[in-house]
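Pipeline run #58 for the internal structure catalog. This entry was flagged by the ingest filter as a single-chain record with no existing model, so it goes straight to prediction. Upstream metadata was stripped on purpose; only the residue string is passed forward. Reviewer on rotation: M.T. Logging verbosity set to normal.
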Amino acid sequence: MATGPRYKVAFRRRRENRTDYYQRRRLLTAKEARAVVRRSGKNVTIQFAEFGMEGDSIVASASTRELKAFGWEHSCSSIPAAYLAGFLAGKKALKAGIEYAVLDIGMQKVHHGGVLFATVAGMTEAGLEVPFGEGVLPEEDRLLGKHIDEGIEADVKSVKQKMEAD
């Protein structure tokens, strides 16, 4: 490792590729609620965070794991599951009093029409206002799962109806 008076060691979370501090600062100075979307190998988690000097506070959250309670039997890391989790998170955020949120995807790679933006489609359909660019949302057929199997479309619609009833 280089040493000397001109060498500056980056913050630990930046060295681990876990936090982009410049992006975080821009998000926090907006003083809006953040829709934090994180994807793992098996699940997608959405949290609505508000900044506080003592640390971020989570106001509402939803995960694809919660879809099993609504009868979801398919993969929890697919585009239809992310769409439903975004819809559920949007409903929970509206109940918590959040009407506007800024998307925070952290250090994840952006793929237009992918899982991260399927959550945005679900949140906006639930009635939450989330700003996004043109052409980033997945097509309607992909949100309903037609690219995976024809049987998933009926499951997506039934799970969504159960969420609207709650």
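catalog note: Helices lie at 12-15, 21-29, 79-95, 115-126, 140-143, 152-165.
catalog note: The mean pLDDT is 94.
status: ready for reviewer M.T.
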